[in-house]
Specification:
CATH architecture: 2-Layer Sandwich
GO molecular function: ATP binding; phosphorelay sensor kinase activity
GO cellular component, one term: plasma membrane
Number of helices: 2
Oligomer: single chain
InterPro entries: 2C_sensor_his_kinase (IPR050980), HATPase_C_sf (IPR036890), HATPase_dom (IPR003594)
Structural class: alpha+beta
Strand content: 15-25%
Number of strands: 5
Protein name: histidine kinase
EC number: 2.7.13.3
Distance between the termini: 29 Å
């Protein structure tokens, strides 16, 4: 059971992007200081999965993976990860949020 706590999302993503670049990946980060309140380990795992999937399935030689964070509605934080892969087939969209689903 993980307790909820504040987490500087920008610092987490800066480290992830730095590590990805050291690994030879092309990643751009548009970041500003933002704090989210939640389960820190779960948030880090979710952000890492998004970035890993974008680099594995959607990184192209010409276009970097783009990551951006911004203030969201009602005090939330918006995280956008954009890649240049083929995308998710329309028939699989309904399964996208299900745990342990590989598309």
């Amino acid at each position: 059971h993980e307790n909820r706590a504040p987490l500087r999302i920008d610092l987490v993503l800066q480290k992830m992007v730095r590590d990805a670049r050291l690994g030879g990946h092309k990643v751009e980060l548009d970041s500003q200081p933002l704090t989210a309140f939640g389960k820190p380990l779960a948030l880090k795992r979710a952000l890492g999965n998004l970035l890993d999937n974008a680099m594995f399935y959607g990184e192209s030689q010409q276009q970097p993976v783009q990551v951006a964070i911004a203030p969201g509605e009602a005090g939330m934080v918006s995280v956008t990860v954009r890649d240049h892969g083929p995308g998710v087939p329309e028939a699989a969209l309904a399964r996208l949020g299900q745990p342990y689903t590989r598309l």
